[in-house]
Amino acid sequence: MYEGRQIQTIIVPWFNDDIKIEMREKRKAERKWRRTDHTKDMKNYKITKNNTSKLMNEACRQFYKNFIEANNSNQHKLFAAAKKLLNHGDKRVSFPPSVDKLQFANQMGTYFVEKINNIDTNLENMGHDLS
Fold it and tell me: How confident is the model over 74-97, as pLDDT tens digits?
């Protein structure tokens, strides 16, 4: 560990030492490019960045392929993994207990009906102004 700096650890199941080494090389190439501002160094950085992305994507793909093969008879685990991949976490909407849900729904409906009517009126007025 460097003095005065804290290294952030990436916590994903497919992250490995090869990716860690490649990320260090990418950061090293980026620092060199930013320091020198040479086209050659920029190209080297882009190549290293693409290699890092390719390595990470392949590791992730392989991890989930193995996961699916190992759990192909367990639908619960497969659906949980799919939700995680698609960022479909717990998306329940909760209202404070003091809110009357029926009244709130009616107010929302009224708001959108008025909004549509206002837009329609504005469009009609714009049409009259053009002619």
Answer: 899 888 888 877 777 666 767 777
Q: Which domain holds residue 42?
A: 9-93
Do 14 and 26 reside in the same domain of the chain?
yes
Number of domains present in the structure of the chain: 2
pLDDT(24) > 90: yes
pTM for this structure?
0.55
Cα 7 from Cα 27, distance rounded (Å): 13
The answer to the question of residue 38 being in a domain is yes
Are 110 and 72 in the same domain?
no
* Burial status of residue 42 (CB atoms within 10 A of its CB: 0-12, 13-18, 19 or more): middle
Exposure string of 47-80, with b = 16+ CB inside 10 Å and e = fewer, is: ebbeebeebbeebbeeeeeeeeeeeeeeeeeeee
